[in-house]
Amino acid sequence: MEYHDSEKAKEVAGRVEDFMEEVVLPREREALATGEQITMDEIHDFWDQAKERNLFAPQVPEEYGGQGLDFQDMLPSFEQVGRSLIGALAIRANAPQEGNMHTFEMVGTEEQKEEYLRPLVQGEIQTAFAMTEPKQGGGSDPKMLQSTAVKDGDEWVINGHKWWTSDGLNADYYLAMVRTDLDAHPYSGTSIILVPSEADGVEVVRNVPHLGGHGITERKGGHAEVKFDNVRVPVENTLGEENEGFQIAQMRLGGGRLTHCMRYSGMAERSLDVAKAYLAEREAFGTTLEEKQALRHRIADAETRLHAARCMVRHAARELDRNDARIEVAMAKMFTANVTNETIDLALQCCGGNGIGKDLPIAHFYENVRAFRIVDGADEVHRRSIARWAFEDIDEAEVENALQFDEDLRIDALDE
Ligand SMILES: Cc1cc2nc3c(=O)[nH]c(=O)nc-3n(C[C@H](O)[C@H](O)[C@H](O)COP(=O)(O)OP(=O)(O)OC[C@H]3O[C@@H](n4cnc5c(N)ncnc54)[C@H](O)[C@@H]3O)c2cc1C
């Protein structure tokens, strides 16, 4: 499908595609076939190769070691890397690191960019975004945040309990969302504070057991449960303005949701490619499965919906490069999450037992994609925002205007 992305975007994506075909996908196939995990040394080797090919960290400004692409221009490259379980990792465009880099870039001080962003891009440090808390803390409704930071001289004293902190097992720093003004509404009394995992009082309780997660690399980021018990950090560790944590998180999530859409649409596309190849080759009941109308129609629907999702993501990316695009991103995220889930489920079904088996990547994709309807805002939370937007202009005058009809004309029509 031709999307008329910019020349720059297409040029980089073409090189990313070559890298995927020549380096990443062959290694992924081998790992799936042998069960041997891809080592950290190999991942570092991917990064070196990505740098040589000028593909490394497309989302990061050039001065910090990336390719300096905006959302529209990184989009086709992110779709390409999403085709593999390890594609995004191989060019350092994987969540949550990619979203955290974006956050440092947007709101970090020059000192913070030097101290954290530069080594983060190079993979010398890892970070994790710690918002969600066990019940009754922050989750779908982040206003319920309970973790706190209180100033004591020139230090924050942090107490709280987080979980589902992606990459939290190997993070060097947590970007912890904590209440910093308990008298204010959470929207104007929350901050993001950088907490070193080595600080006294930080306890990684466990990797929360979850669907999937048996990765093909030896990298152990996990989804951590973490406790902060009177953890002291300097006030300079505040990321962005104090008490503006919600606004910063919203900026982070806008981009993070869209880049998830880009990667997951690549995953869905590859699943369809695998399924179509299987259907073209496999025979049953006198023909190849490709000939069965019942399957052809479902593939046609999946192609159509995936195309619609990609168009929505492109539109949202264009808007996000100009302003905050909150509703466009909510629509694109909710729609793409559902389309990619349905597409991967269909692809799995088409491949029969091979879909469940792990010689092919589809079963891994299936385990991975389900969370997309929950992370970064569950479907229902996005529908809530979209519905609020849909109804916000409906005032009395609007109602009267929309529902008005000319009663005389109706009576005349009835008389006739
Ligand atoms: C794989 C994975 C990775 C994650 N990574 C991170 C991370 O790095 N950092 C982080 O901070 N968090 C992370 N999370 C947490 C994730 O953001 C939350 O799970 C999500 O925001 C939902 O919050 P919750 O789990 O508390 O669900 P709850 O808030 O308890 O909601 C439960 C369900 O209720 C429904 N619901 C909620 N609100 C409404 C409503 N208004 N109307 C109707 N239905 C509603 C939804 O279906 C929702 O799924 C991750 C989660 C997963 C599964």
Task: Tell me what you see in this structure.
The structure is a single chain. This protein has 416 residues and is α+β, with helices and mostly antiparallel strands. It has 3 domains: 7-94, Orthogonal Bundle (Butyryl-Coa Dehydrogenase, subunit A, domain 1); 127-239, Butyryl-CoA Dehydrogenase, subunit A, domain 2, CATH 2.40.110; 247-391, Butyryl-CoA Dehydrogenase, subunit A, domain 3. 51% of the residues lie in helices and 14% in strands. It has helices at 7-34, 40-52, 71-81, 87-90, 97-107, 110-122, 245-281, 293-320, 326-350, 353-356, 362-369, 379-391, 396-403, 407-415, and strands at 127-130, 148-152, 155-166, 173-179, 190-196, 202-207, 223-234, 238-239, 283-284, 287-288. The longest helix has 37 residues, at 245-281. The site of flavin-adenine dinucleotide has 18 residues, from strand 1, strand 3 and helix 12. This is Acyl-CoA dehydrogenase. GO terms for molecular function: acyl-CoA dehydrogenase activity; flavin adenine dinucleotide binding.
Features:
single chain; 416 residues; alpha+beta; Butyryl-Coa Dehydrogenase, subunit A, domain 1; Butyryl-CoA Dehydrogenase, subunit A, domain 2; Butyryl-CoA Dehydrogenase, subunit A, domain 3; four-stranded mixed beta sheet; four-stranded antiparallel beta sheet; 51% helix; globular; binds flavin-adenine dinucleotide; oxidoreductase; FAD; AcylCo_DH/oxidase_C
* Number of E-state strands: 10
- For the residues shown, what is the average pLDDT? 96
CATH architecture of the largest domain: Up-down Bundle
How far the N terminus sits from the C terminus, by CA atoms, comes to: 53 Å
Strand content: 5-15%
Question: Major sheet: order of its strands?
Answer: 1-4-5-8
C-alpha-based Rg, rounded = 24 Å
List unreliable stretches of 5+ residues: none
Overall helicity: 40-55%
Bound molecules: flavin-adenine dinucleotide
CATH homologous superfamily annotation of the largest domain: Butyryl-CoA Dehydrogenase, subunit A, domain 3
